Amino acid sequence: MSLLAIDIGSSTCKALAFGTSGKVLARHSASYAPEFPRPSFAEIDPEMFWKAVCSCCRKISAQLAEPVQAVCLSSHGETFVAVDSAGRPVTRAILNQDSRAVRESSSCEAAIGRERLFQITGLFAHPMYPIPKILWLGFLAVPLNQSCFLFGFHAWVITQRFDEFVELQRGLEFENADQRFLLHLLVDDRGEHLAGCGQFG
């Protein structure tokens, strides 16, 4: 029996297969290059992530005597991609180090209040989190609407393994919401906290 762990980093996908005793059975990595098309922007074609994951899986599978029984997937939590109702990306993946949404981050803090924001989310406002970037996308670049969904990147990779795209509650993937500046901000209060930041959702 073998287990497979995959870490999708900002420039390298690393994969490791090991047995139940902890012995390493195989390893492989695949690199890709983030793009910085404008100051403060950090993006990548999501297909590059997916191809790197597939490459690692194929290389490791070829070295194993038995099929992998379980997979663990991790990635940088703030990176996300917007997709349509069929699961197709409508934006490039916006990376965690992207800081384009400074103004939107400040607007969230001004509208909600620094202390209240921390009480709601456990975090202080920062442009690396998805909410400010989602606001930026909605007003300046991509007209997000009810047919769009927002995924943390490891969740998007998982959807590529299935034939049908499954719509998630409210078009948001809530796993690790606390890491993405989402905890309670949208779930408990139905987005009312964002009213002062602009029309969202």
Task: Set down the secondary structure blueprint.
Elements: E1 2-8, E2 12-19, E3 24-31, E4 43-44, H1 46-61, E5 68-75, E6 80-83, E7 93-94, H2 102-112, H3 114-121, H4 130-141, E8 149-152, H5 153-159
Parallel strand pairs: 1-5
Antiparallel strand pairs: 1-2, 2-3, 4-7, 6-8
Helix pairs in contact: 2-3, 2-4
Describe the overall structure.
This protein has helices at 46-61, 102-112, 114-121, 130-141, 153-159, and strands spanning 2-8, 12-19, 24-31, 43-44, 68-75, 80-83, 93-94, 149-152. It has 201 residues and is α+β, with helices and mostly antiparallel strands. The N and C termini lie far apart (45 Å). Strand 1 and strand 2 form a beta hairpin. The protein contains five helices and eight strands, in the order ββββαβββαααβα. The chain has a four-stranded mixed sheet with strand order 3-2-1-5, covered by helices on one side. A two-stranded antiparallel ribbon has the order 4-7. Residues 162-175 and 183-191 have low confidence and may be disordered. It has two domains: 1-75, ATPase, nucleotide binding domain (Nucleotidyltransferase, domain 5); 78-201, Nucleotidyltransferase, domain 5.
Distance between the termini: 45 Å
Number of domains as seen in the coordinates: 2
Largest sheet, if any?
Answer: 4 strands, mixed
Mean of pLDDT: 77
Determine the CATH topology of the largest domain: Nucleotidyltransferase, domain 5
Categorize the overall geometry.
elongated
SSE string:
EEEEHEEEHHHEH
Count of DSSP E strands?
A: 8
**Low-confidence runs (pLDDT<50, min 5 residues)?**
162-175, 183-191
| CATH architecture tag of the largest domain | 2-Layer Sandwich
Helix/strand-derived category reads alpha+beta
CATH superfamily of the largest domain: ATPase, nucleotide binding domain
Strand order of the largest sheet: 3-2-1-5
Rg on CA atoms, Å: 18 Å
**Tally of DSSP helical segments:** 5
Helix percentage: 25-40%
CATH class division of the largest domain:
Alpha Beta
